[in-house]
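Hi Prof. W.,

I finally got the Tagatose-6-phosphate kinase prediction working! I wasn't sure whether to trim anything, so I left the full sequence exactly as given:
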Amino acid sequence: MELLTVTLNPALDLTYRVPELVAGGSVRVAEVTGRAGGKGVNVATVAQALGATAQALVLVGGPGSDELTDGLTDLGLRTRAVTALAGIRRTIAVVPDQGDTTILLEPGSRVTAPEEVSDQVLKEVAAALAEGVGAVVVSGSLAPGVPAELPARIAERCREAGIPCVVDTSGEALGAAVGSGAVLKPNREELEQLRGPLGAEPAALADAAGDLLTGGAPACLVTLGAAGLLLRTPQGAWLARPPEQIAGNATGAGDAAAAALALGLAKGSAGGVPDWPVLLADVVATSAAAVLSPVAGELDLAARERWLPLVRIDELPVAEGMTQ
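And this is what came out:
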């Protein structure tokens, strides 16, 4: 199984391990790790850890590009690079021994030829589809100047090819992807931006997620933080939670979920409708196992296997006429 990930705002990721993070003072960093990054890159490396192969389509250009592409090679990823940027941004994750991780995100440089860049990205996606990739994941923010509709256009190409596409983005780009056939992966706040206030009941979230099953989308996955993950499909809705409270670095948890979801959908597209609760358990266990790693894009495989049969899954009621 091979996965294509698309990262339209790549980064050089730095992770600082510190005993504790105190605002306003000097903090001695105990350990520094760095690697090629961006959410799509994290998805690709998790897919590799799960036994798949992966291609990484990234925007490059300017200072940091060689470091990025060399880093992708070091990670064992086949790279598809589209020159578009004036430089590669950095992200910094500060991970204390106790407490929550703090993330600093640079904005990324502006794309000055958006239509040309979009055309080149779509050509690379078409080439990967022609080679037989099993699924595509468009993940993360868009560099300034990248057209908001580009993730939707990628998803439409995938739909035409009969290949599942997961879109994990936000804002205008997420809204533009509704109806494209993409499997959308919003969090609760992003879902409410699309559908309005939803209240506290999971069933209301399930119905709102069902509204996003347009254009042939097989599923919508809503991330709810500590409350778990909600999966909505034409066949029903389920809420899943990890078997225990997990402390660590949650930076890459959503990327791990996207990788597991895409690989499960790829297997389903080859052999029929997936067993959704089984797939959801895999997504939750994989996401939780990523929290144990201090570096986004990595996961504790032993913990994943241990938690897989212990994930708590509840089927949710959905409005009449909203299942198939």
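The chain has ten helices and 14 strands. Does that look reasonable to you?

Thanks,
D.
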